[in-house]
Structures are given as structure tokens and as C-alpha cells.
Amino acid sequence: MDSIIYEFEKVTKYPLLKFLNDYRLFMLNSYPIVLQYYSGETDEIDNTHLNFLSKLTKDCVTLGVQFKNFSSKFSTCGYWELMELVEALTAAVEKINKLPKFLRTSKTKYGYKPYIQVDTTVGGLRTMEEVANSIKNVSGENSDWIDLMLNNDLNESDWEIDELKSISAFVNNATDIVVTTILDQPIGERIYGKDICKNITFVDNDLDIVLYKDNIDQKCAILLELNRGDVPENPLFGKDMSLISGSTVKQFSYPILVEDITNIFMQNDLFEYVNVKGFKFSEGDMTLTCDIKTKYDYKTEQKITI
After folding, report:
1. What's the CATH fold of domain 188-305?
2. What is the pLDDT of residues 186-197, one digit of tens each?
3. DSSP summary character for residue 98
4. Is the pTM of this model over 0.90?
5. Is 223 exposed, middle or buried (0-12, 13-18, 19+ CB in 10 A)?
């Protein structure tokens, strides 16, 4: 890998080694602090860490452009492995930028908090005390009017009783939930669960569902059809169709396709392995045959035509 990095820097004139070192330093020193801030554990953060994240994000975009611009000069599999490494690092950086979404936190006047933000109004004969009481009645949240004013950085002179003013109420999102009963005991094949049928249909005036092993088969089919760009939160997740579309038997990259499919299934805790045991071309279409096994001993064979 060292020789590939050296050749990459020689061809592109881009300091890849510095980027990799910056990424390592960020994950070691800045990421834990950014995580604490975005999760609401701390109210303040040194802007140095956020600026570092912003710079790393821009570097990921620039680096991706380098691979695209110089793709014709990268001819060995080592460059593809390097590109996959950089794509994985880029996906990690994008996820860090979206931590508030994954952590279900909202930005308040005092940093990020594990709250759900709700827009409401005060005034129009509606007092702060009444807004606080309505939150208690709906959510059971122990909120008071002082908290509302502090969270919105309001003084009593900032609103009038006969004039509506928009404010934000915050409902705690870190609530402990205790499950006391299980409606469908996970015994035998019930452990595979149930889901709504992907082909939306109605049975007995209700949505049709797939049960147990049929649910696993449906999940496998959905994952096999997943392409990059199908998941907005992770645009690098899925099969890279740019390496497949328009390719002949001799041109398309079979190892990369197999690796993409493996990565899709291995990110789901349900599955133990997926083996692509064969493929064939027929009339311009390519059909893959896969053996898939869950961690609960269920095996299935799935085929997908690309």
C-alpha cells in the first residue's frame, strides 16, 4: 500500500499521506470531543475541532475528484483498493457531519441536546406557563416556563400577551422505555420477525405482511438490489453500478462487485455470511447466484439479474 500511495502522490501531486495522517489525528483527538458535543453531553466545544472536521470534509471531496480525474492512469488493483479505502474514510466523515441526525439531538441556544424540537407560539392570550403545561400534558415532560424562556433566550419584554411570537419547545428524547410484555414471543421461526410486504397490497382491510422466513427472503432480495445512491444518508452504500453498466464479460470488475455485496450484508447483524457462487451473462443481462445464511441457521439461495 505504501508504494501505491507514493505513486498516487506522484501522479496527482496530491498529498495523500498528509490526508491520511490528518484523518488519524482527527479520529484520535477531535472525534471524541465532537461526539460529546453533538450528543449533548457538553454545552461548549473548541471551534478548532469543528474547523478540523470542516477541513477534513473538504479534503474528502477534493480527494474524490483526484481519483476521478486521473482514473485513466490507475490501472492496477492496488489503486482500486486505495480508492475503496478513501471511500470508506469519506463515508465515516460524512456520518460524523450527520451525527445530530443519527443521535436524534436538536440544536438549542446552549448547544446540542437530546431533545425533539417542537415549534409553538406564545402570546395571543397564551402565557408561557400555559405553553409549559400543555407540553406536560402531551408528553409528560417536566418542563416549566423558565426553561422555555431560557432555551429561547427570551426576556419577558420580548413578547406581548396580545401578539403571537414563535418559540421552540424541547421534549426530552432520552427517555427510558421499559418493555413489560412481548406480543409475539420469539420462539422457533418467529425469531425472524415480520415486515410489511414490499409490494404494497391489502388483505382483510389491512396491509399485507411477510412472516418469518419469507421476511428473511424479502430482506435478502432488497439488499441484493441496493445500489449506491439509494440510501441518501450513505451514498457510498450499495453496489457500484458504474463499474457494471455497459461492461462486457472481460471488462467488468467481478471482485469489486462481490466485495460490494458482501459489505452490504455484513453491515446487517442478522446475517452470518453471503457467498456469490456464480454468475452468467445472457442476452446482455448478468445473473448472480448467492448463498446467504443468517446467524439463526436459516439458509437461502437468491438470484439477482443486473
Report:
1. Nuclear Transport Factor 2; Chain: A, (3.10.450)
2. 667 777 788 888
3. T
4. no
5. buried
